[in-house]
Structure formats: C-alpha cells, structure tokens
Amino acid sequence: MASQMILVLDFGGQYNQLIARRVRECSVYCEVKPYTTSLEEIKALNPIGIIFTGGPNSVYDPASPQADPEIFKLGIPILGICYGCQLLAHNLGGRVVAATEDSAREYGKTETYFNTDCKLFRGLPAESITWMSHGDYMAKVPEGFALVAHSDACPNVAIADEKRGFYGVQYHPEVNHTEHGTDMIRNFLYEVCGAAGDWTMGDYKESSIKAIREKVGGGKVLDIVHYVQIGEETVSELHIKIPHLVGGAENFFSVHAILNAVYDIFIHAIFLSYQGTSGI
C-alpha cells in the first residue's frame, strides 16, 4: 500500500466517493471516513492532506456535523469543499449566514474568476466555469485568509490561508461541470500536500489479493457486493477484507479482477442494485 494517503472526511455530501475517485485518478491513495473519525485515528492514518466534503446542512445549525477543532492544529493541509469550506470559516473565526438573492445564493454553472498566484489555481486559466450549489454565505472570512476566487455575485468563492495550507472553495471541483476541477484537486495534492504520485490501482489490487489470501487462508468467504448509482457516478463497494475499495466505476472492475484472482476462496459473490441501476 502507498505510504502517502489523503483522508476525505464525509460530512454528508452526495459526491464524497467522487472526490475520492478524483484523488485516485491523480495517482494518490485516498480513504473516505465519517466526520466523526476521532483525532487519534486521524493521527494514526498520518494523511498528507485532508479534504472536507460538502453536505446538506448549515454549519451554524447546532445539530450540523462538525469537525473536532483540534484537527486544525495538526499541521495537515485541508481543502474544504462547499459545506467543508464554510466549516473552515465557521471554526476559524469567520461567520457563515443564510444567503439571500443579493448575497451570493448560487446554483449551477457559474462564471468564476481566479487568482492564479494561489497554489490551488497555479497554471490554470484565470477565468472558467464552476458548479455552485450553496445556500449559505461567508459574511466574514477568517483572519489570515485571502480571497482567491470570486464570481459576479459572490466575492469569496474561494479562500486560502497558504501559510497553514488551508483552502476552501464554495463550488464542487470534483464534478465534470467544473472546468479544470480535477486540475485544482491535483494542485492541492502536489503543490500543497507534496504528493509523490506513486500509487496505482494495479499495485493496490495486488496488495489486496495478498492480504485476502493471508487473512482467509484455507477458509471460505461469503461476500456481498453493492453496485450503486449516486448522481452521475457509479460506485461499488466490496464488503470483505478489502477496506476502502470504493469510489468510481473503475473500482468496480478492479473488484471483479480481485474476485477472479482469488475465486477459489469465495462461496458466493452477491451483487445488489440500487436506485434504478441495472443488476449484474
């Protein structure tokens, strides 16, 4: 397994696995964990960077999912996406309020303007389309953060504290509608987190096969595979001793490769289909 990894903390966003897929497409290993993951477990994982996902809640709601404030003291770069961006602001001295029509409630494709001196946008066009989906607004940006992107309606589409490696974007760079979105994620991985880019799905498959054989030995395994459609992406999840192998259609075929490679130890592989997807 790769020595470097990115941790995606899930705050209930519909694109959490898609974010992980984009990271892996950049040749960096990634795991998705719930926002309730303890600080001790995060330290043990030793990620080179953390990504906060989007989510349907408002950060100022007392019942909304929150991060342990101590996470901001770990010295690990953080990229907050949509809700994750507002979570950064909310926890670090900013103020998030409900947006109105004249205070940057935005949805859909939006012309956005970038400060390309910022590491997140380095080497990318100064103007392009992003996909917005937020009903809250950062009325106050935390001290130490610069405004590094804006739209016609919103002055703080993206914020950055480059000294601490904290970045927040109010749009979704992981979706295809955002132009150069994967490049922005890649910049976070390589320019900010210092990723080596030495991970491949093929290497992971081989190490997973070895781990399965060592753990199962001469026994048999009953396995269930979920095949799920979430938005525009297909996600497969293998419920066996192959942790965290989720996040995109390419992983579904990797699951098949693993099953074929170690077929003799399986009793059954049961495929379930959700949300109108065709069964296997």
Please describe what this structure looks like:
Helix 5 (201-216) packs across helix 6 (249-261). The strands form 3 sheets. Strands 2-1-3-4-11-10-9-6-7 form a 9-stranded mixed β-sheet, sandwiched between helices. Strands 13-12-14 form a 3-stranded mixed β-sheet, covered by helices on one side. Residues 226-253 and 266-280 have low confidence and may be disordered. It has helices at residues 16-25, 39-45, 83-91, 181-192, 201-216, 249-261, and strands at residues 6-10, 30-34, 49-52, 78-81, 95-98, 106-114, 127-134, 136-140, 146-151, 158-161, 166-169, 221-230, 233-239, 266-274. Strand 9 and strand 10 form a beta hairpin. It is α/β, with parallel strands linked by helices and 280 residues long. The relative contact order is 0.15. It is 24% helix and 30% strand.
The biggest sheet, with number of strands, parallel, antiparallel or mixed sense and barrel status, is: 9 strands, mixed
Number of strands: 14
- Proportion in helices: 10-25%
Q: Strands of the biggest beta sheet: in what spatial order?
A: 2-1-3-4-11-10-9-6-7
Cα separation of the termini = 29 Å
Compute the CA-based radius of gyration. 20 Å
Give the oligomer, counting copies of the same chain as homo and different chains as hetero.
single chain
How large a portion of the residues is in β-strands, by DSSP E?
25-35%
Q: Give the structural class.
A: alpha/beta
Average per-residue pLDDT, rounded, comes to 80
SSE arrangement, N to C:
EHEHEEHEEEEEEEHHEEHE
- The global form is globular
Task: Catalogue the unreliable spans.
Answer: 226-253, 266-280
Q: With helices defined by DSSP (H or I, 4 residues minimum), what is the helix count?
A: 6
